[in-house]
Amino acid sequence: MNSFLAVLACVFSGVAQEVRHTFTFVPPKPVHQVTIAGTFNGWDKNATPLRLSGGAWSISLPLRPGKYRYKFVVDDQWITDPKAQANEGDGNGNVNSVLVIVPGDYDRPASPNDGVVAASALEHATEIPYFNFDRGHLTLSLRTRPNDVADVKVVVKGVGSFPMQGTDIDDLYRRYTVSIPWDRKRDLSYHFELRDGRKTFPFGKNGLNDSADYRVEAKKFKPFEVPPWVEKGVIYQIFPDRFANGDTKNDPRNVQPWNATPTYSNRFGGDIAGIRQHLDYLEGLGVKTLYLNPIFLAGSNHRYDTIDYLKVDPEIGTNEEFGQLTRELKSRGIRTVLDGVFNHTSTKFFAFDDVVRNGAASKYTGWYGFKSFPVKIQENPNYVAWFNFPSMPKVNHSNPAFRRYLLDVPVYWAKHADVAGWRLDVANEVPMDFWRDFRRTVKSINPQNWILGEEWGDATRWLQGDQWDSVMDYPFRGAVLNFVGKDGSGKPSDLMNGLMAAYSRYAPQVSRNAMNLIGSHDTPRILTMCGEDKDLAKLAASIQFTWAGTPSIYYGDELGMSGGKDPENRRGMEWAKATDRNEFLTHYRRLIAIRNANPALQSGDPVPLGSNDANGTATYARVLDADKGQIAVIALNRSDRPQQIVFSLDRLIHRRLKLVDALGGEAATLSPQGQIRLSLAPKSAAILVPPSGLIRHSRLGRGSRRPASV
C-alpha cells in the first residue's frame, strides 16, 4: 500500500464512518485569507475558509473513506499543500494535492488467504451502478477491498450461483461483476458468497455474515434507458467564434484577424454561416453529432454569461439561421446538441438588470441570491456569483418563476430548431431536483433527446435514471493522458485500470454514451499535452475511438492544432491544414470510418486482454456478439521501440473467425494454442476487425496496404 495512505477512519458495525481530518497551512509570510477547495466541496474556493491560530491556518472536515484532490487558496492564489504526501496532475496542466482516507479495518495487509474480510469495503445496492438491466441482461456488482478475497459469487434463489469477475481496481476498492439473463418477468432474490482462504462468508442485505436476500420486484423495476443513437456516432465540438467566419456583415467591432492570438476577450467573427459553409467537411469526416458551445446572446466571446436564452447572438446569426442549420445537419445525418448554461446568467439578463435598476423593489429579487441593496457589480459582489465572478450571478433554482422560465428554454428551441440534446454547463452545481424537472421536460418533448452533464469527477449521483443520460468523461481523458502524455509516467496497467474504472463506475448503457474526450474548450489540446509528439497524439485518438463511449473531437484536433490552456486552446480553425496530405486528418478519417463500420466499436463491451509494463504495451477487445463476429481487438504500443505482443483470444472468439488490421499494420498470426502474435511499430496501434468491418483505403486518399490476419 502506498506510504501516503493515512489510516484516518473508524469502523462501526462493519460500515466505514466519516472521520474528521484536519488540513493545516503555515504561510511563509503573513496572509489575509486561506480557504481550501477540492472534490469534497465542488472546488468552491469560498465555501471552506480556514481559521488562523498561532500562525497556522487550519480546518477540520468530516470525510468518508476515499480519494480526494484539493488545493489551498491563499489570498486568491491556488497552491498545492506543502505537506501533501502526494500530488498528481489533473490532465489540464495543473497539479493537485491528494489525500486518501483509508477505512480502519485496512490496518492489516490484505490477503485472499487469511480468512479475514474488510467489512467496510463491501458495498451493494439494488440500484445503479450495482444493479442494472441492459440489453436483456442483469448486471450485479459487489465492491470489496483489493486482493482481499479469493473469489466472489452471487446466489440467485431458484436459479443458481454465478461466479463474478474482478473488473476494475483503484487505491481503495475492487469491483466484482457478473451479467446474467433476466426476462424481467420473475422477481429476484439473491445474496453473495465470498471465499477467503478456507472460509466462506455470506453477504446479504444486512451486511457481512448475513445471507438475507436482496429482493427486487419485477413489476416495479424500471430500467435506465438512454438514447441509443448516441453511442453509434461520433461527436464534433465547435467553439462558434473560432470555427469559421462565413458572414462578415455580422462581425463584432474590433474583430481580430483569423490567425490572431486569442485572448480572454477578443473575437474572431465565427458564425453560423461559417459552419454551414463547411457542412461537406463535417459530413466527410463521418461525425453524427454536432455539439455547439453557447450560441445565445451573451456578453463574452465564450457566451457562458447568457443575456437572452431565447435569442441567438447576432454576432453568430439569427434564430432563423440556426433553425435552418439544424435542419440541414439533420438531412446529412448529423444531430445538434446545444450548450445550456442554467447555473448562472449575465448581469445584463433582464431579471438581474431589473434588480440593478430597482433594487429591493424589483419583483425579481428572488431570482438570485442578493445579500444587500443596491446591487454592486464589482469584485466581491454583494450577491452570489459563480466562483465569485461578478459577471456571472448564480441562479436561485428554488424560485418557482425562474425555474419555470428556465424549463421553458428547451421547449422554445424544440419549436424553432431541430435540437437533439443539451450539454449542461457546470451541471454538478445545479440542484438535483431542477435536473429531475429538466429531464421530465426534455424527455416529454422527445424521449430520444440526449442530456449530457458536465462533471469532472464521479457523476454517479446524477446518473441514476432520473437526471442526466451521461457525462463528459474527464476520468477517461485522465487515464489516456497519463499513458500518452509527454512525461510518459503512466504504465499500460495504469491505463487499463483507469479505463476500466471510468467504464465500470456507471451502468454500461451510460458508459457507452459517455462523451469520451481528449480535448475540449476547457483543456489544453491533445497534441500540446503530448509534447507536440504527433505519434503519441494519434495513439491517444486510437484509444479514444476504440474504447467504450462516444468519442468527441474538439474542433481542429483532427488537423493537429496545438494550444495550451485557455485561451490558447481556442485559436481560429486552421483551415489551411484541412488537406488530404495532413496525417492527422487522414488518421482521424480512418478511425471514424473504422468505428462507423464496426458495431462492436460502437456498442461492444470492453474486455481487457493484458498489459505489459516492461515493454509499454496493452491489449483489449470490444465484444458485442462474438458468435456473429461482432468483435474488435485493439493493441497499443506506447514505447519508443517496435514490440511483439502476444495475447489469447480463446475465450472470446471461434478459431475460424478471421480478423484483419484496419489500420494496415503487419500480419498477425494465430498459434495452435489460440494465441496471437502481433508486431507493432513504436507509439502505434492496431485495430483488428472482421473483414466485413474493413474500410477501403482508397476512400481515404491512401494507397492499399497488406492487411494483418488472424
Automatic annotation (TrEMBL):
GO MF: hydrolase activity, hydrolyzing O-glycosyl compounds
Signal peptide start and end residues: none
Gene3D superfamilies assigned: Glycosidases, Golgi alpha-mannosidase II, Immunoglobulins, Oligo-1,6-glucosidase, Domain 2
Assigned keywords, A-Z: Glycosidase, Hydrolase
InterPro entries: AMPK1_CBM, GH, GH13_cat_dom, Glyco_hydro_13_lg-like_dom, Glyco_hydro_b, Ig-like_fold, Ig_E-set, O16G_dom_2
Keyword Hydrolase in record: yes
Any Gene Ontology biological process: carbohydrate metabolic process
PANTHER family: ALPHA-AMYLASE FAMILY MEMBER, MALTODEXTRIN GLUCOSIDASE
Protein name: Alpha amylase catalytic region
